[in-house]
Every structure is written in structure tokens, then in C-alpha cells.
Amino acid sequence: MKRRSFVSGSAALAAAGIVSVRAAAAATIKPYSWDLNPPTDTRDNFIAWGKARGEDPYFLGQRWDRFQALLKNKDIWGAATIRAFLLTPREEFAAVNPNIHKRAYEHAFLDIGYGVTMSGPHLQARMTNVIDVKRGEKVLEIGTGSGVQSAYIANLTDNAYTIEIIQPLAQRTRGVYDELIAKGYTEFQHVNTKSADGYYGWEEAAPFDKIIVTCGIDHVPPPLLQQLKAGGVMVIPVGPPGAQRVLKVSKTQGADGSITTSREDIYGGKIVPFVPFTKLEDGKVVGTHNR
Ligand SMILES: C[S@@+](CC[C@H](N)C(=O)[O-])C[C@H]1O[C@@H](n2cnc3c(N)ncnc32)[C@H](O)[C@@H]1O
């Protein structure tokens, strides 16, 4: 799916019947630059800095408070991921549902419609930190949902790809990105979107340095493993329905060319339920890819 202009983005939102609480887009945000570095010393300094970029002090305060909780819980640790979290306007992605807009920074999955959720900030921070994205790396996300996960990635690399299986949701989120780009959040130009069954990856854009899967499945999809570069890392919830464990899967190539993979549980065994990794058949979402 190609990037759309703001006008068609808004049209997409309207067509999807979305009541957005986001104000009509106008370029009110200081455009992105890799030099943007939000302060991490005090809440007041962070809010003042974000206000100068054009953001809302109420949500900046919430973002700071959640950042402190993430640090305390050891869900975030790398300087680049911290910067990405502090730059990502989570509230803008929650604005698709007025009931969750003000709750954007809560430690919870939030309902974004279409029977799916926006993952919580602790989980997203930990998964993002684990894949340790370097600038320029190519990253694939399976399960665009609200778009907030790829919004974090857009602050780490200019080479992000995300796939959503629910076509109207993919269209709505494309509209959200376009609206935010028009508002000045030019970092979201780093995100390429499409609607498809992510089980098969994104062949034309492969291989990827990193892959992040945000829906749960009982095995690692072979096409995704194949599209991961040697030396690459994937983070994926694996397990039976509603009882996944979040795994870091590392792919390595030996001196003789042989490929091996290793797995590590990023929560040390804790069960983390995810929405299912569903399947597309004849253009309809039917069942799951579980074996
Ligand atoms: C937890 S939700 C959304 C996560 C998203 N990163 C966010 O924070 O908003 C997982 C998403 O995966 C999508 N999904 C499920 N199966 C999929 C598949 N086979 N291909 C692509 N997306 C899929 C769901 O429709 C849902 O939007």
C-alpha cells in the first residue's frame, strides 16, 4: 500500500466510520530530525522541551510518568529506545477511540476496534529494546494495529515495514500516519504499510535485519525466519492461544555457511497473552495459522 496524502488519509478515516478525537491536521509540530533529543533529567525539562516541539503538556506529563515506570520495571534500557519512547506520541494512536484516548499511557492493552488491541507500553518497550534497532536497519512488523509500535521503530530507523491483516484497520492506520505526517511528525514517513497476511512476510522488501511480531502463534512462521538476515533478530509471541511466551529468536550463520537459530524467553517464562495470528483465505480473515 502506498503512502497517501492527508486528504485521502482523512477520507479513509471517515470511510472506516472512525470518530477521531484528534484535531484536524495542520503543521503544528516541529518536523523530525535525528538530532531531536528529549531531555531525560527532569519531568519539567522534558515537558518544556516537548511543548517547544508543539506537543500537549498533559500527554507529555503522562509520557514522562510512564517512562519512569518503564525504567523502574526494567522494560526499557537502551538510550536509543528511550529516545524513541519519549518522542512517540502514543496518544495520537489512541485517538481513534475516544474511550481510550486519555488512557494511552496506561499499563494495559487498549481496545482499538475490529476486535483487536493496542499493546501496552511495557510490552512494546521491552520488545523494541530486545531487537535493538540500529539506524538504517530494515525492520518488519507483523500486526500494525494502531500503528504505535512502528511509530517507535520510525524513531530508530528510516526503513520500517508493517503489515496488517484487517484491511479496513490497515487503511485507517495508514490514514493516521498520513494525518500525523501532515501535522509535522515527518518521522512517520519512515514507515511503509500494507494490508496482507503477514505469515508470508514481505518478500519484495526482504531480507530484514529485525522482525517484530505482535500477534500470537504456536510456531515461528518459516517464511519470516527465511526473510530474516543471518545475524538478525526476531521477537515473537509463541505458544497456544492466549498463553504465549515472548521469544527472542536469533539467526546465525556458521563459518561453513550453516544457519542456526537460538531462542530466549524475554520474560523468563512469564505467559503474555496476545491476539491471535490469523489467516487470510480468499480475501477473508479465517481462523489462525496455528498447527
Ligand atoms: C496486539 S494487536 C496490535 C499490535 C500493534 N502493534 C499495536 O500496538 O497497536 C495485533 C495485530 O496483529 C494483527 N494480525 C493478526 N494476524 C495477522 C496476520 N496474519 N498478518 C498481519 N497482521 C495480523 C491483528 O489484526 C492486530 O491488529
Question: How does this structure look, described?
Answer:
The chain is of the alpha/beta class and 291 residues long. The protein has a single domain, classed as 3-Layer(aba) Sandwich (Rossmann fold), CATH 3.40.50. Helices cover 33% and strands 21% of the residues. It contains ten helices and eleven strands. The strands form three sheets. It has a seven-stranded mixed sheet. Helix 1 packs antiparallel against helix 9 and helix 2 crosses helix 3. The chain is globular, with a radius of gyration of 18 Å. The N terminus is likely disordered.
Report the uncertain regions. 1-19
How much of the sequence lies in strands comes to 15-25%
Order of helices and strands: HHHHHHEEHEHEHEEHEEEEE
Mean pLDDT metric: 92
Work out the number of β strands.
Answer: 11
Oligomerization state of this entry?
single chain
